[in-house]
């Protein structure tokens, strides 16, 4: 049996005030069978220096900084080009993980042999307050329709984020799935729906293991006309992906 290894892709941009907590939470993982791929998108603060200091100390960290600011989707796509694990997830450079995050996912993939697994998460504020997204734990295998339903919900313990999900590298590569670089918002949800329409087995769990830190200067909290456009385009792509997937399924069933 092939031993699972988790590749964690972390994107950073001017997160010098937060990234130490992120890196320390990775150092503290109880299961060490992972690698960290860092893609910095041209930070102008000391983020790169901090990353370099950790990379010098830990051989499981590799960094591939961009030479041009290209956005988070391009950074994640760069990360996908450098992973060596058969499983992959994505984290943000201003968030942090519970110590059992890696072990939880590696165990789930051994026990269930799924293509996608999720965990729950905490919503943290900059002043350190933390609130779990849901107090009631729910977990189990679900079909594709239920997985997509939970991914596309505008609220809930799963939603369309990538950082509370782990994917099979083979599914991503075999289906040429990537992050769409013309979107600054909801690129996660588009990626997840494209993945879910070709994945076969899903395990959803709301056990909170990821800390999402809500910052005042985060792009998701800034309102702009460009953001309105991104939401509309992303929703259209999600709808089209689901529609096309169901049409393909119907056509296959008719042939059979």
3D structure, described in words:
The protein is α/β, with parallel strands linked by helices and 256 residues long. Helices cover 38% and strands 22% of the residues. The protein has a single domain (6-255), classed as Spore Coat Polysaccharide Biosynthesis Protein SpsA, Chain A. The protein has an eight-stranded mixed sheet with strand order 3-2-1-4-10-6-11-9. Strand 1, helix 1 and strand 2 (34-40) form a beta-alpha-beta unit. Helix 5 packs antiparallel against helix 7 and helix 7 (187-196) runs parallel beside helix 8 (225-255). The longest helix is centred in the C-terminal third of the chain and has 31 residues, at 225-255.
Set down the secondary structure blueprint.
Elements (H helix, E strand, L loop, with lengths): L5 E7 L6 H9 L6 E7 L6 H11 L3 E3 L8 H9 L6 E6 L3 E2 L3 H12 L3 E3 L1 E6 L4 E3 L6 E4 L1 H8 L13 E4 H6 L12 H10 L5 E4 L2 E7 L10 H31 L1
Parallel strand pairs: 1-2, 1-4, 2-3, 6-11, 7-12
Antiparallel strand pairs: 4-10, 5-12, 6-10, 7-8, 9-11
Helix pairs in contact: 5-7, 7-8
InterPro entries: Glyco_trans_2-like, Nucleotide-diphossugar_trans
Keywords: Glycosyltransferase, Transferase
Protein name: Glycosyltransferase-like protein
Structure described in brief:
With 256 residues, the protein is of the alpha/beta class. The chain contains 8 helices and 12 strands. Helix 7 (187-196) packs parallel to helix 8.
Q: Which key terms come to mind for this protein?
A:
256 residues, eight-stranded mixed sheet, alpha/beta, 8 helices
What's the architecture in CATH terms? Alpha-Beta Complex
Q: What overall form do the CA principal axes indicate?
A: globular
User: The CATH topology, please?
Assistant: Spore Coat Polysaccharide Biosynthesis Protein SpsA, Chain A
| Helical content class | 25-40%
CATH superfamily: Spore Coat Polysaccharide Biosynthesis Protein SpsA, Chain A
The averaged pLDDT comes out at 88
- The arrangement of helices and strands along the chain is EHEHEHEEHEEEEHEHHEEH
Rg over alpha carbons: 18 Å
Fraction of residues in β-strands: 15-25%
Kindly, what is the distance between the CA atoms of the first and last residues, rounded to a whole number of angstroms? Answer: 34 Å
Biggest sheet features: 8 strands, mixed
Give the tally of β-strands: 12
Helix count from the secondary structure assignment: 8
Structural class: alpha/beta
Across the major sheet, the strand order is: 3-2-1-4-10-6-11-9
Task: Note poorly predicted spans.
Answer: 219-223
CATH class: Alpha Beta
Count of distinct structural domains? 1
GO molecular function: glycosyltransferase activity
Domain Glycosyltransferase 2-like: 7-173
Pfam family, one: Glycos_transf_2
Protein name: Glycosyltransferase-like protein
